[in-house]
């Protein structure tokens, strides 16, 4: 039995989520027992993900998009914008990637995902002990790299946080890359927020 199969299914929501057929064209995630559906992303969002993928060397890293994550002890199956795993690690088949093999997760903030990306996902990824979580925020024109996960459940968080502005080099030590953000677009006509 794999780690993915060992996840608790006490509420039945995980089983329901995995068996339900959701409408096409929507991104669907299970976040702490809540099913969240979102419309497809903005073009600027996809351009940013593409730029990040282009800068992480394929020879050393698997750069997976639209990959669902399995997290032990959580009723969560998030689908980050980008999952970075050492080449050769993790399963070659299946819908779920165990969080234990992940080096870094990337979320590009959308106009409607600010609270999820900075709040519940930050906690979920820290609880999963994912070593690095990069939030790329076109609302505020900034990147937030979170490292050193600590804690459990809803109280989990990251000890270290580094904020850089778009246009500045963003060091991503966990994957050995200095991320060039000079071409990252900022969303227009969106109200600023208070995060991180």
UniProtKB/TrEMBL annotation:
Transmembrane parts of this sequence: none
UniProt-recorded name of the protein:
Uma2 family endonuclease
Q: What InterPro entries does UniProt report for this protein, alphabetically?
A: Nuclease_put_TT1808, Restrct_endonuc-II-like, Uma2
Record CDD domains:
DUF820-like (cd06260)
Q: Which UniProt keywords apply?
A: Endonuclease, Hydrolase, Nuclease
| Classification via Pfam families | Uma2
> Domain Putative restriction endonuclease spans what residues?
18-179
The record, for SUPFAM superfamilies, names:
Restriction endonuclease-like
